[in-house]
Write a sequence for this structure.
């Protein structure tokens, strides 16, 4: 069958002040009607440039198309003038962008934004275009579309905005849609809905989709063909079956291995209770008149010594607030938190400082959790000196030991955070957390800002440290696969309340609460896990 | 929206009260009365004069009668121009100042926005550097220096434009308006450039381009609104600056406007005139700040929504 | 893993590049900013040494001489009273710079303290403090300064205070915004969870990170303050003769610019060049300290 789009030997380079970057270096792929071609790669692999470059949507300069062809309906996209390309953008090829929060113009009503392509490409009158846009809005599942056409983007939730973006891409009935990480910014249940919607629309309108993602599980559910990109090149490409069953290239294998599938052996616990949380409530109100937000509402649970407990929930479920309340980074409104029998909610400053030595936190964003003006040495030395774990004399060796235990090169001790990659930064942050030899760590989404292969390394490092230092850990995450990989027991949060808890297997294989069931159904990667289960 | 407007108006009232009170007592606390340097004034005449202007009453009483007068639109008689009231002088001078300010503002906004948007479209190229260097000159060249230089060049050396007066000869409004507006044109150019640069990097512009919109539509329809928000917010302070700037410009070009009256009143210690003009200009400035706030809020759908 | 500590010589460790060093490198590449900085240093040194290096006293009159164009004896000419213009510009520069620096220092002290408290304490205190700033913003300060000058006479000290009191508002807003956004950063939470005291958190974690914008704004406040002084002096409400400041010299120059243009041109140049230098340095610092610029 004739492909809709056939890209051959595409090369796009960026001529930056720091030298030449070969963002896309000789890649070829086809897109067929009604099929999905997925491009998977980690950040900086050039996967987005490989698509935007076709439509002339990369900044030029510094970007430049150095060679190749892109045959779309008999025309070579790379040879077209800007004016000719404009006729294809939004008409022949549309794009769904990653972040629905920023990809809609906040100053214009969504109706006005939606009718633009119709007026532009078909010369429709405003009233006619408005009617058509309302119909498409309905088709993507927005209720009360008539009225919603007059709304501004901020009046929609993230998932709804992405539906609007999809409607806008679809409105001209393009032959190809480029979906650039369309679900990465969304919660898992919303992600499932959006993926389903895209698949439906693709089937109904016979559209070819280029699906760009870093997430192998998502890709495994929806792709027909897969291209694996690394450093501007496609290292491996083939049908979904070929990639998942007979991966040849070491990088593809590494990606596949990085997907957490098996979970660790459950430690046979002693029965000593380490942390007891009872009826914990943390409420916020921004002002006296504003309604109270019950971020955490009447939550009770226990954690045993040396246990890793996963705390799962979607954004806004209050899972982070629980972690911060336990560590007294926010003050709980009511309830009790006991660590080894000590009630922490009532501690004064001095006692709290003593206790802080034994409980630490690892944060989500390694770019924000390190002081940009302190070197690794200063960052790691701070807790050591504060809690008098090292003296001035032994400080150097203590810092080096810490760096060894989180596998950071000793040579980089004097460097500053901005000189490290995301994964290395997270190692520094972990080093800081274990510096005081704590008994308890709250890890708040410690790997969700990292590339998938790095995620696996950091998770393994955490497991190793838990083992070596006999840590107890509360592991907070929205990513069920990651939690299943690392946790012994799982707590599920929804809208400030704890809806389910139990051993990992029990929760995953036999969820009781309807919310947990929806959550698990939404997890992408059915194909992938079935493959792995099959051997 | 009305709620927002009402809230802002309510806030303006205490501000104005503070302005009036502080000004009143400052002026009254000043050493030396208005009739001190009149040589041949006998004590009797002085007392009579003071009685005429209510200066013999206790301070608080003076203040309240002034407030009452103010509400009725009466700012009292001028000390230096016997027989003329402050209101008269203000309403004689203000139309001139207002016209000057309006031309200067129009010039500043038109040139500033054009230059700023133009520069932002190709950052770090000649198209950026040239207008921005000009803006830097505008910022570093105060009106009291630019004015005389323009007079020297266009008035005296080339003799193409009149250099004094207002509305007496054709073209005599050009130089004062340019002089007064230039600094604000420069600020507006810088503000619109940085505002546009910020918006131009937003994802939603990429969305607009991906729809196939031509570049000018992308800029005009999608970028300008957000990009010029800082300029809108600057209009209030700019207006205040234009009014005080008119003091200098009206002096240089000998324009019979409020600014020149004010400076003269300051030298003559014409206290009722100083008081009246300060209160008048302050009220104007407070309301212009209010107006630019409201305009900025109205252009931002999110703020508009909050106050629906 | 097992390298003994003694085997690593601290001298050989590669030094990291701190953000300050990074900014300094960027600033050094910015030619305009560096020229501005050098020019400013020269002007400041000249202002400090003026009493010793000025060719004449600022008030030494020679009425027989009158206004003369630049000559070997008087490099920049003389004014109507036969006073040496170069000396008067040098002495005037002392006043103009002094006003610039002191008023900015006043603004800095008030603004940073106020902004930092509002930002750090937050909540209702912050709301009230910032409401007050909003209200003050609405006041017509320029008119007030003129009023003060009229009422209390042309007092240099008063002028410092009056100008400083106007300029602190923006500084307070900037610092408050910085502190507030930094407080929400995870590294400050991390510092709290380690158990650091609030004083140490402010000193080690907040101030170094909030410093950049403060430096930039300070550099940009100085020229606007100097302009304000020149403006007042031009109107005859600032410095009084026989003392001189650049604004006053320009105002005198304007009166006689037809006959003796150098009396306008040289003081005008002195003021504009210094303003240029300060603004270029300020812009350069902004570019150098703004991490968003460093990404390309």
């Amino acid at each position: 069958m004739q492909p809709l789009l056939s890209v051959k030997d595409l090369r796009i380079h960026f001529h930056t002040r720091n030298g030449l970057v070969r963002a896309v270096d000789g890649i070829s792929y086809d897109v067929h009607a009604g099929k999905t071609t997925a491009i998977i790669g980690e950040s900086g692999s050039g996967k987005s440039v490989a698509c935007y470059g076709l439509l002339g949507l990369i900044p030029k300069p510094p970007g430049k198309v150095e060679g190749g062809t892109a045959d779309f309906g008999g025309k070579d996209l790379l040879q077209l003038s800007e004016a000719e390309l404009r006729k294809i953008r939004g008409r022949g090829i549309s794009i769904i962008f990653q972040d629905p929060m920023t990809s809609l113009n906040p100053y214009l009503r969504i109706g006005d934004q939606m009718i633009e392509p119709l007026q532009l490409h078909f010369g429709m009158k405003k009233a006619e275009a408005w009617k058509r846009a309302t119909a498409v809005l309905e088709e993507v599942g927005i209720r009360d579309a008539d009225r919603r056409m007059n709304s501004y983007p901020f009046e929609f939730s993230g998932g709804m905005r992405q539906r609007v973006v999809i409607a806008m891409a679809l409105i001209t009935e393009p032959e190809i849609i480029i979906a650039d990480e369309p679900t990465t910014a969304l919660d898992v249940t919303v992600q499932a809905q959006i993926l389903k919607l895209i698949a439906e629309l693709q089937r109904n309108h016979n559209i070819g989709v280029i699906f760009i993602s870093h997430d192998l599980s998502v890709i495994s559910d929806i792709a027909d063909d897969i291209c694996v990109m690394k450093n501007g090149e496609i290292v491996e490409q083939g049908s979904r079956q070929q990639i998942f069953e007979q991966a040849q290239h070491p990088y593809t294998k590494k990606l596949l291995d990085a997907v957490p599938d098996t979970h660790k052996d459950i430690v046979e616990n002693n029965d000593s209770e380490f942390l007891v949380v009872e009826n914990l409530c943390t409420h916020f109100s921004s002002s006296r008149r504003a309604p109270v937000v019950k971020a955490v509402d009447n939550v009770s649970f226990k954690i045993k010594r040396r246990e890793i407990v996963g705390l799962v929930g979607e954004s806004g479920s209050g899972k982070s607030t629980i972690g911060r309340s336990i560590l007294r980074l926010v003050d709980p409104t009511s309830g009790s938190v006991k660590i080894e029998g000590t009630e922490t909610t009532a501690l004064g400053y001095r006692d709290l400082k003593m206790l802080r030595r034994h409980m630490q936190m690892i944060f989500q964003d390694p770019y924000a959790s390190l002081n940009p003006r302190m070197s690794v040495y200063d960052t790691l030395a701070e807790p050591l000196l504060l809690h008098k774990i090292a003296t001035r004399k032994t400080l150097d060796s203590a810092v080096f030991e810490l760096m060894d235990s989180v596998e950071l090169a000793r040579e980089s001790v004097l460097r500053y955070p901005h000189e490290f990659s995301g994964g290395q930064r997270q190692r520094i942050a972990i080093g800081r957390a274990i510096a005081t030899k704590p008994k308890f760590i709250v890890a708040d989404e410690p790997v969700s800002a990292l590339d998938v292969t790095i995620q696996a390394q950091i998770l393994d490092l955490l497991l190793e440290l838990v083992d070596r230092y006999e840590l107890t850990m509360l592991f907070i995450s929205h990513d069920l696969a990651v939690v299943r990989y690392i946790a012994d027991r799982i707590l599920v949060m929804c809208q400030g309340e704890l809806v389910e808890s139990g051993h990992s297997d029990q929760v995953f294989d036999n969820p009781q609460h309807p919310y947990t069931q929806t959550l698990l159904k939404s997890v992408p990667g059915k194909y992938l896990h079935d493959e792995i289960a099959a051997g | 929206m009305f709620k927002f407007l009402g809230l802002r108006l309510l806030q303006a009232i205490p501000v104005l009260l503070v302005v009036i009170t502080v000004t009143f007592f400052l002026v009254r606390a000043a050493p030396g009365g208005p009739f001190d340097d009149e040589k041949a004034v006998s004590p009797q005449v002085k007392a009579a004069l003071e009685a005429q202007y209510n200066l013999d009453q206790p301070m608080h009483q003076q203040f309240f009668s002034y407030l009452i007068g103010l509400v009725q639109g009466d700012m009292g008689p001028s000390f230096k121009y016997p027989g003329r009231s402050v209101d008269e002088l203000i309403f004689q001078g203000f139309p001139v100042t207002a016209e000057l300010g309006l031309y200067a503002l129009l010039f500043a906004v038109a040139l500033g926005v054009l230059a700023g948007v133009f520069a932002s479209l190709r950052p770090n190229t000649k198209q950026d550097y040239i207008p921005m260097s000009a803006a830097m000159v505008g910022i570093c060249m105060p009106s009291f220096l630019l004015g005389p230089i323009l007079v020297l060049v266009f008035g005296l050396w080339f003799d193409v434009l009149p250099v004094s007066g207002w509305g007496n000869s054709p073209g005599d409004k050009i130089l004062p308006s340019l002089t007064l507006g230039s600094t604000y044109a420069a600020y507006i150019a810088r503000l619109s450039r940085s505002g546009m640069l910020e918006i131009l990097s937003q994802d939603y512009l990429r969305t607009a381009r991906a729809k196939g919109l031509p570049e000018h539509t992308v800029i005009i329809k999608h970028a300008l609104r957000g990009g010029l928000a800082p300029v809108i917010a600057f209009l209030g302070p700019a207006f205040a600056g234009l009014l005080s700037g008119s003091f200098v410009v009206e002096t240089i070009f000998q324009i019979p406007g409020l600014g020149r009256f004010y400076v003269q009143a300051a030298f003559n210690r014409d206290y009722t005139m100083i008081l009246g003009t300060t209160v008048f200009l302050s009220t104007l400035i407070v309301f212009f700040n209010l107006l630019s706030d409201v305009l900025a809020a109205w252009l931002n759908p999110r703020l508009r929504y909050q106050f629906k | 893993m097992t390298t003994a500590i003694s085997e690593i010589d601290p001298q050989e460790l590669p030094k990291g590049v701190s953000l300050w060093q990074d900014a300094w490198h960027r600033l050094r590449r910015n030619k305009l900013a560096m020229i501005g900085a050098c020019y400013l240093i020269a002007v400041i040194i000249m202002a400090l040494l003026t009493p010793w290096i000025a060719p004449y006293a600022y008030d030494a009159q020679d009425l027989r001489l009158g206004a003369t164009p630049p000559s070997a004896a008087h490099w920049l000419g003389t004014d109507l009273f036969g006073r040496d213009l170069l000396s008067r510009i040098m002495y005037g520069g002392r006043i103009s710079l002094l006003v610039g620096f002191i008023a900015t220092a006043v603004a800095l002290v008030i603004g940073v303290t106020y902004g930092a408290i509002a930002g750090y304490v937050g909540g209702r205190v912050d709301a009230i403090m910032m409401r007050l700033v909003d209200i003050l913003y609405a006041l017509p300060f320029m008119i007030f300064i003129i009023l003060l000058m009229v009422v209390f006479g042309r007092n240099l000290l008063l002028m410092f205070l009056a100008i400083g009191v106007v300029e602190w508002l923006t500084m307070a807003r900037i610092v408050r915004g910085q502190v507030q956004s930094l407080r929400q950063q995870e590294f400050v939470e991390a510092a709290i969870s380690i158990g650091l005291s609030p004083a140490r958190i402010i000193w080690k974690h907040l101030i170094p990170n909030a410093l950049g914008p403060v430096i930039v704004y300070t550099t940009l406040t100085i020229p606007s303050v100097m302009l304000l002084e020149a403006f007042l002096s031009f109107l005859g409400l600032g410095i009084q003769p026989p003392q001189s400041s650049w604004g006053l010299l320009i105002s005198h120059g304007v009166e006689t610019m037809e006959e003796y243009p150098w009396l306008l041109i040289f003081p005008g140049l002195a003021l504009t060049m210094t303003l240029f230098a300060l603004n270029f340095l300020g812009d350069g610092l902004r570019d150098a300290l703004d991490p968003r610029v460093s990404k390309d």
About this structure: Residues 25-51+84-289 of chain C form a domain with the MetI-like fold fold (CATH 1.10.3720.10). Chain C has ten helices and no strands.
